[in-house]
Amino acid sequence: MEHENILEAKGLNHWFGTGDVKKQALFDVNLTLKRGSFTVLMGPSGSGKTTVLTLIGCLRSVQDGSVCLLDRELNGASEAELVALRRRLGFIFQAHNLHESLTATQNVIMGLQVHRGVSDADAQRAATHALGLVGLSDRVGYLPGNLSGGQKQRVAVARALVGNPALLLADEPTAALDKESAAEVVDLLKRMGAARGMTTLLVTHDNRILDRADRILTLEDGRIVTMEDRG
Ligand SMILES: Nc1ncnc2c1ncn2[C@@H]1O[C@H](COP(=O)(O)OP(=O)(O)OP(=O)(O)O)[C@@H](O)[C@H]1O
């Protein structure tokens, strides 16, 4: 049976650097993410938000403590296990990171490259579908240079969603967007979460997003200082 919690992190500590410049970035971080929930992670610059996201996202190794993601322990996991888990995650970053020389569809297909064994025709179909979900059916053949900031970020959302991730990790996805585009992107993620049971953990300084969160966590100096459940 699948657990209600898609993620459980316990006693997570993390350090950067070695010797004299060794610095602790996370202190005894505990957090759980309920399947299908929408959690916002806040905190001042340098408080450790990206470090938490990259640890949960299997983008760096867990040094101390436990992270149980999709019923697998990340502490001590092999690179092959981490790669396999990463396939079940979606990522969106502040800068959309689209390839400028690829069309919207080709960029979205990049989100499927980690899924082996997907035929070109299926990839094309999935990308077209994902672009439709983000309201860009009429822009599938456009290069990023011909899209607005909000449209580019929606392509990045489609790329993150195309592989049907169990957990979506988003680092400041609305920072570069105007109010309307930011609200569209967040509503889209919430809708996807509800429709697919996708769990979202989103780092933001953006107060506009807080109303939409099921839970708000605040990090300060590497420690979770508040945890607020809503609704
Ligand atoms: N690769 C690294 N090498 C050394 N120190 C790092 C590295 N990455 C992060 N740090 C340090 O760890 C602490 C937490 O950084 P992190 O990027 O997680 O914070 P953040 O809350 O995401 O900040 P921001 O909002 O500015 O992105 C900071 O003191 C930072 O300087």
From TrEMBL:
Domain ABC transporter: residue ranges: 1-229
Leader sequence segment: none
GO cellular component, one term: plasma membrane
Pfam families: ABC_tran
A molecular function GO annotation: ATP binding
Superkingdom of source: Bacteria
Annotated keywords: ATP-binding, Nucleotide-binding, Transport
Protein's UniProt name: ATP-binding cassette domain-containing protein
High-level lineage: Bacteria, Pseudomonadati, Pseudomonadota, Alphaproteobacteria, Rhodobacterales
